[in-house]
Design brief:
The protein is α+β, with helices and mostly antiparallel strands and 92 residues long. The chain has 3 helices and 4 strands, in the order ββααββα.
Length: 92
């Protein structure tokens, strides 16, 4: 799956990593619903760091369609809320 981190670029991520990422996504959703700004910021960075760690970066000139778009590291709680589906940022 191709994942885009807004403002950074794209990575190719194996589907087998999504269970691990969904745990962080669930934490992020709980923190957002509870208005925990510090927890939200910490978990968002942990989620993005994990995507960078597990994914293989695509070249900057690659024009692959992104199947999943994640917010930039400096996104606000409100901006991320606007991106959410019923499952959070990561489906499943």
């Amino acid at each position: 799956m191709i994942v885009r981190i807004m403002g950074e670029g794209q990575v190719r991520l194996a589907d087998g990593h999504f269970a691990e990422l969904n745990k962080l996504d669930d934490e992020l959703l709980d923190e957002m619903e509870g208005g925990d700004e510090a927890g939200f910021r910490r978990t968002l960075h942990a989620l993005l760091d994990k995507v960078r760690e597990l994914g293989d970066p695509l070249p900057d000139d690659a024009l692959e369609p992104s199947e999943l778009i994640l917010p930039a590291p400096d996104a606000t709680l409100t901006e991320v809320k606007d991106m959410l589906s019923d499952d959070g940022l990561i489906p499943g």
